[in-house]
Design a protein that fits this description.
The chain is α/β, with parallel strands linked by helices. Helices cover about 45% and strands about 10% of the residues. Strands 1-2-3-4-5-6-7-8 form an eight-stranded parallel beta barrel, surrounded by five helices. Strand 4, helix 6 and strand 5 form a beta-alpha-beta unit. Helix 7 packs parallel to helix 8 and helix 8 packs parallel to helix 9. The chain is globular.
Amino acid sequence: MAKPLGITDTVLRDAHQSLLATRMRTEDMLPIASELDSVGFHSLEMWGGATFDSAMRFLGEDPWERLRKLRQALPNTQLQMLLRGQNLVGYRHYPDDVVEAFVVQAARNGIDIFRIFDALNDPRNMQKAMEIVKREGKHVQATICYTISPVHSIEAFVDLSEQLADMGADSLCIKDMAGLLKPYDTFELVAAMKKRLSIPVQLHTHYTSGMASMVLIKSAEAGVDVVDTAISSMSLITSQAPTESIVSTFQGMERDTGLDLGRLAKIARYFKGVREHYQRFESGIAGVDINVLEFQIPGGMLSNLISQLREQGAEDRYMDVLAEVPRVRKEMGYPPLVTPSSQIVGTQATLNVILGERYKVVPEEVRNYFRGFYGRPPAEMDADIQRKIIGQEKAITCRPADQLKNGMEKARAELGDLARSEEDVISYVLFPQVARPFLERLHKGLDKQELVAAAVAARLLKDLESKQNGGIASTGVTNAWKWAGRKSPAGSPWGIE
């Protein structure tokens, strides 16, 4: 019997996050929404990841309003978001009451499928979000972050997937954020999961290494239920494999997707025009980047590294930093390089190289990592490095969020009349330094054009201050440069997922 391969298109989230620094505006999504809605995708990934703070930070947009508008414009398609477990859409752990409030409002505003992951593959950091999504009657897609190291194996990933299924997952996603999966390894992994799991399996990968299309074909042969692709004009490089290519590959076959290539071509033409409006945000990576296979660094992380080193006049240290990243990663217990662990590892590696002495300066985020505040890494951390960074202090072994006090009531009190809704309070809890000025501009009654102008002006001012002070820090790791009295530019660094 035919078993159609489901397609999740990422054009409204990961595709433009990977290629255009998450700058696509809602007004460029809505005109094509009816065409997207009529395709018959398994789902559209259109929210979460870096899109939430980028909307307020760069675009003068309310991310909740984007969700509501797209929900209205896409009534027949499942909407999917990327949720960083206890980090939600931020770069640190939030208290359980914040996790609950966020998931409840995301579900009520239109999200059907919650793809939930943790940067360390620590199930404890996914547990609360999964519980609330389940309670709200939405789809829990529990996720494993695929990576390569001496402690990662097919068997270990399958064991983890079984654990997540036992925790109540409705489906399982293999998230290959760096494009490290090889075709035959993919077949083995998917086949093993399909043998041991009774829930659907989905695959997400990036084209960075040039293997994504082959990986998707082998996953389909192994029985994967759904794969992530991006409409062709927003695919390849560090994005996903082209939707039309995968659809065409399986036409007339057992895994025929049933999607209309003519309709997809129309959508591709539309986004080709849209992409031209955002050319200044392109990464500059021209095609396949095999560095990801040697250093296991996601493509977005590579492009941001180049930019940051260029600002410091240290481009000649690029290969030194690339070589330092795996060394730091090993000392941190081989975490997958995905938000926020990629920022933590990447910033420390850069500091080690630029300053000429390893761990001479240690950001607070790195200290907290070694204290156990981000969770349990896949392997033991280097005891000597840990002792150098936190001394005789004992790392916590409990679920990190158990250490946090509730945050919603405090946020409500701090915002006062600025909060128009529960969503505004949540935005403030997650990104207080971004949300407050955004809400203040709304409170003053600025129209959309003025909001955008204000957001752009604020960004330019920060960029100017950063260049004057020589800062190269990343969002989420700003303490790294406080030793020099420098300010860090806002943005989504190190290939944020």
